[in-house]
Amino acid sequence: MTNSTDDTNKTDGTGNPAIGLLTGKVVFITGASRGIGAAAARLFTAEGAAVVLAARSTDALERIVTGIRAEGGVADAVPVDLADRASIRAAVDRAAQLHGRLDGAFNNGAAIQRPGPLDTTSDEDIDEQFAVNFRAHWTAMTVEAALMRQGGGGAIVNTSSIGSRRANPALPAYGAMKRALNSITETAAVTWAPQRIRVNGITPGGTATEMIDAWEAATPGIIEANVARTPLGRMAEPREIAEVAAWLLSDRASMVTGALVPVDGGAGA
User: Fold this and answer.
1) How far is residue 87's CA from residue 104's CA, in Å, rounded to a whole number?
2) 140 in any annotated domain
3) Which of 48, 68, 89, 135 has the smallest number of CB atoms closer than 10 Å to its CB?
4) Active-site positions?
5) What is d(CA 219, CA 115) in angstroms, rounded to the nearest whole number?
6) Has residue 128 been placed in a domain?
């Protein structure tokens, strides 16, 4: 495997020069076919990482991989169904087969529920939210940490949500599972710290992704309302969320573990 570590002419996607934040690291990313995950794939490779991208949409993943390789980066695609624990284990195992180790993991994949109040949320929605937004992260973290221990440590970042930090009447099951994710993120950080595995979470606010577009289609006006609640006065771009994940995965964040970092333009302040 040849890893491109010459960042002289690379940028982070905004025109800013890449600084090699993740040089030499192997990073696994779920939910990598679109939105924050796709932005992370491009940013992490610009910053020197070799990435293994996982999602259900393998066609979309292959397009991202092709683009990264065309820029001299190292990327591979693996299919994953986050509702299937065996599929998650197989995807992480594939990362081990490709690179022999794992230095970082960005557990970003998620499912959105059908918007609606708690008393009309279906059993099917609750089951899906549990499987994808909670249990999948538990499974992924466990197998990722096992692989990281073999290399002497690593870093994990879980994507939670601003909706996990307060009441979430529009998305009650989603908010509940993301709050549970916060708990296991903190627990994993304390449990695995002696093995030099750092675990942190990010809690994005409104972000310009396909997920919020689907919410807008179901609940017209949600984007406008979200912007109105955000002191910075706009939605985040996916890359802006990925930037925080990149720092948390890097050695620059070597003393940060068990943190839930807001990336919400001040909406949660």
Assistant:
1) 19
2) yes
3) 89
4) 174
5) 8
6) yes
pLDDT digits (tens, 9 = 90+) for 7-50: 445 555 555 788 999 999 999 999 999 999 999 999 999 999 99
Distance between CA atoms of 145 and 154, rounded to whole angstroms? Answer: 8
**pTM to 2 decimal places:** 0.92
Q: How far apart are CA 124 and CA 126, in angstroms?
A: 5
How many degrees, rounded to 5, is the angle at CA 205 between CA 135 and CA 197? 45
Residue in this structure with the two tokens 């073999």, named with its chain if needed: 150
User: How far is Cα 204 from Cα 190, in angstroms, rounded to an integer?
Assistant: 23
Whether the Cβ atoms of residue 8 and residue 84 lie closer than 8 Å to each other = no
Backbone angles phi, psi at 204, to 5 degrees: -65, 150
Calculate the CA 93 to chain-centre distance: 18
Range of the domain at 116: 26-263
Q: What is the CATH number of the domain that holds 109?
A: 3.40.50.720
The span from the CA of 116 to the CA of 113, in Å, is 9
Residue whose entry in the numeric block shows the structure tokens 């937004």: 133
Token readout for 179 is: 């709050």
Question: Tens digit of pLDDT for each residue in 123-174?
Answer: 999 999 999 999 999 999 999 999 999 999 999 999 999 999 999 998 999 9
**3-state DSSP call for residue 247?**
helix
For 51-67, b/e burial (b = at least 16 CB within 10 A) is bbbbbeebebbeebbee
Residue 45 lies in a domain: yes
- Letter string b/e over residues 232-267, b meaning 16 or more CB atoms within 10 A of that residue's CB: eeebbbbbbbbbbbbbbbbeebeebbebbbbbbbeb
6 within some domain: no
Tally of domains within the chain: 1
